[in-house]
Specification:
The structure is a single chain. The chain is mainly alpha-helical and 142 residues long. The protein has a domain at 4-73: Orthogonal Bundle (Arc Repressor Mutant, subunit A), CATH 1.10.10.10. 57% of the residues lie in helices and 10% in strands. The relative contact order is 0.11.
């Protein structure tokens, strides 16, 4: 497995395609990926070009099924996003989530609902650490 820091950040368009493929929940057809793109209106050739680039970068494996291409993500969504966030934190806040959060609080950029959600997440995470549960938080799953 590639360490998170070695997984390259993707250009925005390719990242959108990967996010759509991950939303498909595994191997997907071209049509399923198009539907999961939620409003992007790319020509089929453009989407095929992005999928080809993702294959060359090692993010996607292409296989044939019934004469049609199927696309399988080779990079785990959580690992990619964790690495991307870690590099973002490193670039702007010296790797400190606390410094970033402090700046967000100072700028009043977090609403009450977000603060309550963060508070709940921190309490839950601390409680789980002491009970031995190791269920990672996934903001995309409820």
């Amino acid at each position: 497995m590639t360490p998170d820091l070695e997984i390259q950040d993707l250009p925005d368009s390719e990242e959108k395609v990967m996010l759509a493929l991950w939303r498909c929940g595994g191997e997907a057809s071209f049509y399923q990926i198009q539907l999961a793109l939620e409003g992007e209106r790319w020509a089929p050739s453009t989407l095929l070009n992005f999928l080809y680039r993702l294959e060359k970068r090692g993010f996607v494996r292409v296989s044939k099924q019934g004469g049609r291409n199927r696309y399988l993500p080779l990079i785990d969504r959580r690992r990619y996003l964790a690495g991307r966030v870690r590099r973002f934190l490193e670039r702007f806040w010296g790797g400190s989530l606390t410094r970033m959060t402090g700046e967000m609080l100072t700028a009043r950029a977090l609403g009450d609902e977000e603060l309550e959600s963060l508070h709940h997440l921190l309490e839950k995470t601390l409680a789980e650490r002491y009970t031995g549960e190791d269920d990672l938080y996934d903001p995309w799953e409820g």
